[in-house]
């Protein structure tokens, strides 16, 4: 889980919202998640992400991308595609992906 929020960004940009239900700590998940974080950070146009998971297994990850080309680069990455296939077969009970264009953004942080 992330401990710091992505601050307000200059719009427009895009989000990939991934919500899922899976058991806590399935075998191999943490290693794969760590590798996916490494890969996505190398994509030009990737702006950051936030993630949270409840003890009951509901997870939400929001990734931010400057444009659709950078989001597509992530979607089409071969390691990411392999992880998605493995996740459907072994980890997730269900998931949804929502892609959105952000037109307004702001943030607050207590000093």
TrEMBL record:
Listed transmembrane segments: none
Domain ABM: 13-99
Gene3D superfamilies found in the cross-reference section: 3.30.70.100
SUPFAM superfamilies cross-referenced by the UniProt entry: Dimeric alpha+beta barrel
UniProt-recorded name of the protein: ABM domain-containing protein
Organism (species): Streptomyces gardneri
Organismal lineage: Bacteria, Bacillati, Actinomycetota, Actinomycetes, Kitasatosporales
This protein's encoding gene: yqjZ
